[in-house]
Amino acid sequence: MRWLLKFKRKDFHIIRNFNRHQLCCTKPGDVKNVCAELSRKFQNVGIEKEESHLSAEYIIAHVLGKKMFHQIPKKQIITETQIDKIKQLAMRRLQRMPVQYVIQEWDFHEFTIKLSPPVLIPRPETEELVQHVIQDVEENMTSQKFLEVGCGSGAVTLCLLAKLPLISAVACDISDIACHLTMENLTRYQVQGRANILNVDFRRQENIQLISGLGPFDFIISNPPYVPTADIDDLDPEVKRYEDKLALDGGEDGLDFIRHLLSVAPMLLKKGGKLWMETGIEQHEKIKDFITDHPGKELEFVKSFVDFTNRERFCLLQKD
User: Fold this and answer.
1) How many CA atoms lie within 13 A of 179 on its CB side?
2) Residues 200, 172, 247: CA angle, nearest 5 degrees
3) Over the stretch 199-234, which tens digit does the pLDDT of each residue have?
4) Is residue 222 within 8 Å of residue 148, measured between CB atoms?
């Protein structure tokens, strides 16, 4: 599912006038009929058809103790107790809460990540970024230490630690909720012993010095805020209402945090160390311009990578 879609203002009118009792017609029955009814109700509040159907499937599967809807026998009867639980979760989705927050978990690679608002929901694009890093590290499998800037749910750090047993991590985030969630997810997969989690504001110089003392790092990875401020109001209700704006808002051109990261990365990286970033579309030329205009920063723009939509989404830089 993609959350960075255009926001339809008519959704406010629909939701304001939504009657809680509309769900009361949901009653015990087979999974197919319950799923179809939930899907219709989600569409009635402005959720797109495909997304409505997927949301219904995820909620029903979650309540019935399954990972995916197709694992449920098609003729299974949903009990009254299960219907009551489905109603509770459906009410949250009807208020445009992301289904990831509704069921409080989501898959990232092969790991199931616990989630809670307002911590940013991991996107498929970020899975791609992690795969690029894994392939790069595996080409020179040595003991390495990396820094994740803006760890959120901990999905990235977890995945890298679990798949690359010789590496260790420092993960930082300004949100204490995010840091607690990161620790919980790392502990779930028993990799917390190789991670140092810091609840700090990365933009403060004293915290850069603190992090520097835990380095130097072989690589830095970050999915920083990169949405231009003027575009925030156009995001889907799921994003705009529930996800942390600090993790989204990149300033006037979307590059405020990225420029800061480019400025401090050289003092955190080893010689030859790498900086991996997920970025907004059409930001790479501006990043190259920043590097050219600041030659003393010791960074070289190495390569752009496209995402599954064939648009430039990730970039690799390296310390000279």
Assistant:
1) 15
2) 85
3) 999 999 999 999 999 999 999 999 999 999 999 999
4) yes
